[in-house]
Amino acid sequence: MSTVTRWWWVRHAPVPTGAGMVYGQMDLEADCSDRPSFEALAAHLPADAILLTSDLKRTAQTADAIRAAGLALPPAIVEPALREQSFGDWQGLTHEEFAAMGDMVPHRHWRAPAFMRAPNGESFADLIARAAPAITRLSTAHEGADIVAVAHGGTIRAAMALALGLDPERALAFSTVNLGVTRLDYITDLAEGVAWRVTGVNWNPEFAARR
Q1: I want to staple 93 with a disulfide (CB 3.0 to 4.6 A). Which of 11, 53, 98, 190 is the partner?
Q2: 111, 127, 190, 122: which is closest to 160 by C-alpha?
Q3: Using an 8 Å Cβ cutoff, are 201 and 167 in contact?
């Protein structure tokens, strides 16, 4: 007999003060004013769910806005391991300043290659190593439940890397949109062990709100 734990990953609302900037773990405010998108999001997510956020305020603000839009979720459990990648000394640079740094390696999907560690910060591979054990632990702790996890683009990519067994560099190919929903199922079976299933990637409430 199988048990399915359903993860509903939600990327936080837009961060206007971070536009054009490498902000990583900077604790910036989210813009939660798009009421139609939040209402579409609240209608799409399960009501009887565990609510998780990282310890950065933009995820807490997004979770509060989802609840205010009509989804009666319990207070959020704060999980620091789900925070965004730290870009260390790169945080606060504009994208142009970052690209102009002489030692940067061009990359088609992200700020830097997956194994390139920011000075006083993390690589994307480090983020996976931090987030993956927490995701597995929380899947076990809340086995059989729905989990709404309001997190960050990097964290959601890390979850995809875990679910699909991807090399970190390949996982950077996934794109996430603000308020988009990615659904991953953690399946446990006494006979067959553990497996992941990808049910949906980047469901966009903005498009749903326009219907």
Answers
A1: 98
A2: 127
A3: no
Which CATH class name applies to 2-209? alpha beta
What CA–CA distance (Å, rounded) separates 178 from 61?
A: 13
- 10 Å Cβ neighbour count for 173? 12
Give every strand in the sheet of 181-189, ordered side by side.
77-78, 49-53, 146-151, 2-11, 181-189, 193-203
For each of the chain's 211 residues, which pLDDT tens digit applies? 799 999 999 999 999 999 999 999 999 999 999 999 999 999 999 999 999 999 999 999 999 999 999 999 999 999 999 999 999 999 999 988 887 876 655 555 455 789 889 899 999 999 999 999 999 999 999 999 999 999 999 999 999 999 999 999 999 999 999 999 999 999 998 777 899 999 999 998 876 655 5
Domain layout of the chain by residue ranges: 2-209
